[in-house]
Amino acid sequence: MGSRAVVSRIYRGEISADIVGRPKIWYSISGLLLAVSVAGLLVQGLNFGVEFKGGSVFTFKAPAASIEDVRGAVHDGGAHQVIVQKAGDDWRATTESLSSAEVTEVKSSVAAALGVSADTVSTQVVGASWGGEIQKKAWQALLVFMILIIGYLSLAFEWRMAIAAVVALVHDLVITAGVYAWSGFEVTPATLLGFLTILGYSLYDAVVVFDMIKEVTRPLGPTSKTTYSEAANRALSNTLVRSLNTSLVAILPVGAILFIGTTLFGAGTLKDLSLALFVGMIVGTYSSICVATPLLVQLKEREPKYKQIRANIARREQSAKRQSRKTTKVKAAAGAPGDEPPDDAGDTGPGDDAGDLGGTVTVRKVVQTGPRRQPRRATRQRRRGGR
Questions:
Q1: FRET pair for 322, CA 20 to 30 Å: which of 149, 166, 228, 277?
Q2: 3 state SS of 115
Q3: Are 220 and 231 in contact (CB under 8 A)?
Q4: Architecture of the 15-48+130-311 domain
């Protein structure tokens, strides 16, 4: 059976995938993704928007202009760090923080170079202190979100599930941030909204899986024939198709916004939001299935209750193996059922030493088929009468 057929059968729920039993594979994939993401954050760094680092923003309409034309016009006005974006017919040029005189000079340069009126060039100056305040509030929101998650999962489930879910969330955040670092996309307040959204989405998948695991593993006891790992993997297999279908349905419209809305309609703000959602949903689905669940199982298998269940199952398996070996030896000693004795086993004719050798002698009853022998007394009477 080919790999495509196996994947298709797993997707349809016909067979169970051993996801919990292969944690090293998933941890290796996650480790590679995290290493690449951290490298991007250290080497490239995040491209924070003007809302975070401060600066000046110039917005105007110039349908016939190109990116090079806009960048050159703003640069000729005295700006140095120029980032140009287009949203439909609107151009958005972001620069470092400029004074009022420098802002006026840039507006005049843009009007002269691109043939637009200086009054139609709108400006916005964002101070660095305001951007720092935005970053601070973003970190506070993330911290409060994590605390609420830990509290909710600890009360609704248990602290081990809370730890597994938080590890998966941090995993999703780092990888998504790494994608932003390597792609050079600008990090804006809309990006932060996307980050918070993917945290909630990833948490939703994890809660669905954990709830099924809790239901399946509740009956486990000392006499159970299934370990916690096997029960958790069965629960995960039952929710696998639903998680994949839900993720696919959610990713398709986000992908349409990212790849169609930003390219055809030039929706720059939607691009910042949709990239975070697109990457986060994919990584969140993966982490809830292949990171959070195996980690939870490893934490739960350390509990004395589930250690005892595993030990009892192993003891019963060893006992069954010993009994099977003993039965095999008894059968080998007695001979296989249905075996016939040798042809000469009952031959005790002249020259045979079966008795001397302690062999088994088979006595065969000979049945006479001729005339029945007359009694001896009747034979004597006939003889007397004949004389």
A1: 228
A2: coil
A3: yes
A4: Up-down Bundle (1.20)
